Amino acid sequence: MRLNYPSNIRIIRVPCTGKVDLIHILRAFEKGADGVYVVGCLEGDCRFSNGNLRARKRVEQAQQILNAIGIGGERVQMYNLSSGEGPRFAEFALEMTEKIKALGINPMKLAKMKKVA
Amino acid sequence: MIVAEKKPIEEIIELVKDSEKILIVGCNECVTVCEAGGKKEVGILASALRMYFMNQDKDAKIDEVTLERQCDHEYLEEIRGRIDQYDTILSLACGVGVQFMAEKYFSTPVFPGVNTCFLGAAEERGVWSERCQACGQCILGITAGICPISRCAKRLMNGPCGGSTQGKCEINKELDCAWQIIIDRLKELGRLDDYEKIMPIKDWSTDRAGGPRKVVREDVMI
Prior knowledge:
CATH architecture of the largest domain in chain B: 3-Layer(aba) Sandwich
Radius of gyration of chain B: 22 Å
Helix content of chain B: 25-40%
Helix content of chain A: 40-55%
Order of helices and strands of chain A: HEHEHH
Largest interface: A-B, 19 and 18 residues
Order of helices and strands of chain B: EHEHHEHEHEEEHEEHH
CATH topology of the largest domain in chain B: Rossmann fold
Strand content of chain B: 15-25%
Distance between the termini of chain B: 27 Å
Strand order of the largest sheet of chain B: 3-2-4-5
Number of domains of chain A: 1
Number of strands of chain B: 9
Structural class of chain A: mainly alpha
Number of domains of chain B: 2
Largest sheet of chain A: 2 strands, parallel
Strand content of chain A: 5-15%
Number of helices of chain B: 8
Number of helices of chain A: 4
Shape of chain A: globular
Oligomer: heterodimer
């Protein structure tokens, strides 16, 4: 398919989005990620029955926490697609990158830079 | 087990916002099982607080530890050596653990990270309901194993009351009438004659009415 999508995304492969825990999302922000998005199978199509539904809940919990601590919950997002939808994957990557660019740098990264300076 | 719920992060931030060195202490027992204050929740809270302080341009030290129990001296003693390094302890144990911690480390402020709710069972994943009020005088043997003290809104000893409708309680249509379940189970056990017996007034002195309680067992004392 040779699709293009932004190169600033780091893909972390997991056996199922159900493996993604709240702490993984939070740690990513703590370490300076500007945004995190979880791409799971279509709802109702999970190989393990409800892994992607669990992931969605955890994403929502992360949004809530990030809102409460002033980082912004919109930096985390859940997407769903089927494994045959390469163009959708590229679309999500572009959408998320644009959204995060508009939101700006993760305040954690700024704080760390300030500390070093 | 003791069922607890996580306090909202905003409330916790309000409690510890002026602290600089915080130790978040989890408990491996009940609060781990009800997913409110175990190792996992400690990690999540620590990460959230670290980010909060960093975002506020504050250099706070936030450490995490999860003890086997917070209601026993031997496990609480495990952190004695490092307690002086912190100006605040945030305990995710039940109210018992928080208090025991506060008693033991008298000069360090201890804050609760969970709301302790009741003694209950896990009906299903994510649903816990009350089963015991620790009244100190168990009557389950004569109420077919269903507790009217914890499960009847009026704590009736001779129920049901007139508010019981189609097996549900009048305070909430979702709530089963404990006395209906007692009758159903007595019938199932062929012990419906027990229902005819009038139960005497309960001695509430073993409940909270008698003040804070204590169990002293000389047989197990060393």
